[in-house]
Amino acid sequence: MNMQYEEDVLKNGFEQMTIIQPNDFEGKVTTTLIRKRGSSKATKAILCIHGFNDYFFQDVIAEEFLKKGYHFYALDLRKYGRSILQNHRANNMRDLSEYYEDIDRALATIREEGSQKIVLYGHSTGGLIITLYASDRKEKAFFDVLVCNSPFYDFNVPWIQKKTVIPVLSFLGRLNPNIALPIGFSKFYGKSLHKNDFGEWDYNLQWKPHVAPSINAGWINAIHDGHLKIANGISVHKPILILHSIKSVNPKHWGEEMFEGDAILNVDDITQKAKFIDSPHKEVIGFRNAIHDLVLSRKPVRDIVFKTIFEWLDKYLKN
């Protein structure tokens, strides 16, 4: 593809490559592929897809997979993190399938670079995207298994709002996708992560602010459409592992409760909607005292999460 890697902002052996994509409704588009190569003998790789208001900074995933003999790759999708351009509204999209060509290019590159088996991993909105991607790509997909970390399979709002407010906003999004709307998840979540507050992680607060920038009605419509596809039943032709916290939390004041559950999604939505995903091998597993991004939970919990992932991969990702 005649593109070059350069040192990534994470340094420590991480590299990044900018991939130019066709223009879209906002003009110029790029996606960023990040990698850290493992042993020269490695034939397996993981590709990580981040969530909403996020980007790749979770080097803990890379280190765990490198130790297990994988090459590591991650994407900053278009209009997120390393891929945001001046002409972009952050996180903006009108259909989840816009991200498919980002994933296509990344997977093709990983194959070209020698990996024969690929884990496609997605967190939150990334989990929703890869689930739909796997369903739409079927046998054409250049990956072998799916791992979904707290996938965003439904809006975390009361049932009555799912039946009334969300469809209305979705309809408005089809008429005028640029109507701005506030985002409504816990302001405490970012504080539970970042080392400047109560967490243990360091990341760019411009790319992942504690309070996400406003979304628009087109985004709501795109997400709602993705949720409806899953609720109506989809099939993926690859093994899928769906992971989640065992409970959700929504504290009104800061407290240790933030480290004990998912402060972004309703975990019951994940388990219920997972029932509509047909796969030859599907497993849904919950974790006690796990936060929304399971691998950023406190170390005893994330150690269990990684142990679970690798035990499952040993069963379904054959050399």
From TrEMBL:
User: InterPro entries this protein is in?
Assistant: AB_hydrolase_fold (IPR029058), Hydrolase_4 (IPR022742), MAG_DAG_Lipase (IPR051044)
As given in the record, the signal peptide range reads none
Q: Which SUPFAM superfamilies match?
A: alpha/beta-Hydrolases (SSF53474)
UniProt entry tagged with the keyword Translocase: no
Keywords, A to Z, come to: Hydrolase
Q: Identify the residues that the record assigns to the Serine aminopeptidase S33 domain, covering every copy.
A: 41-245
Q: Which GO terms describe its molecular function?
A: hydrolase activity
PANTHER family this protein is in? PHOSPHOLIPASE-RELATED
Its protein name is Alpha/beta hydrolase
Q: Which organism is it from?
A: Flavobacterium aquariorum
